[in-house]
Amino acid sequence: MNRNWILVLIAGFFEVAWVIGLKHAYNFWTWVGTIIAIYVSFDLLIRSSSRLPVGTVYAVFTGIGTAGTVIMEMLVFGEPFQWVKVLLILLLLIGVIGLKVVTKESEDNVGAEAEGK
Amino acid sequence: MGWIYLILAGSFEVVGVTGINKVNKQKNWQSIAILVGGFCLSFFFLSQAMKTISMGTAYAVWTGIGTVGSALVGMFIYGESKEWRRVLFISMVLMAAIGLKFIS
After folding, report:
1. Does A66 touch chain B (CB under 8 A)?
2. pLDDT of B67-103, one tens digit each?
3. Where are the transmembrane segments (chain A) (predicted)?
4. A82 is in which domain, residue-wise?
């Protein structure tokens, strides 16, 4: 696997980490960790999307972030599993990824927009 | 109240993304202030929203509002295309977000 794609995967894991931190951080050091995770995930995402197709990078990244937070909250933090919720989040994810991919295809000058996340 | 925080978080994310676009075009302190301020407020409101809304739902809707918001800004302010596929995906995100609101 291309080294840049590994950066995208790591960015996705840090994304899940800061989301967990934002909800569960409880003291100074857990907040520091959360802020570092935000920085690392942004930095890796921007780096990798300058060398890889932005639409695909964004799709993989958002997919990891969304699936990761849903799986973690159910496995680790005791949220109940609800079919309706999982299906709605899946629908939302298809919409977000579809929008990014279609936008990248049809507009040449909005690359920066997709790097926003 | 959680959902109002979540909508604010998504809207400030759009502000932050606008900041990134401005910084890419011209690196001055106004653009950087929009970028940093937008994302800081966005993360602040997201953490407030997650006090009452589950993590997975909050993150998904936050991403959704951010993406749809940026697309709408592009379509209505910067004259990007309003082709049917974009409109379709935007409506999917909005329907899913409304659905999540009702089951939460």
Report:
1. yes
2. 999 999 889 988 888 899 999 999 999 999 999 999 9
3. 5-22, 28-46, 58-77, 83-102
4. 3-114
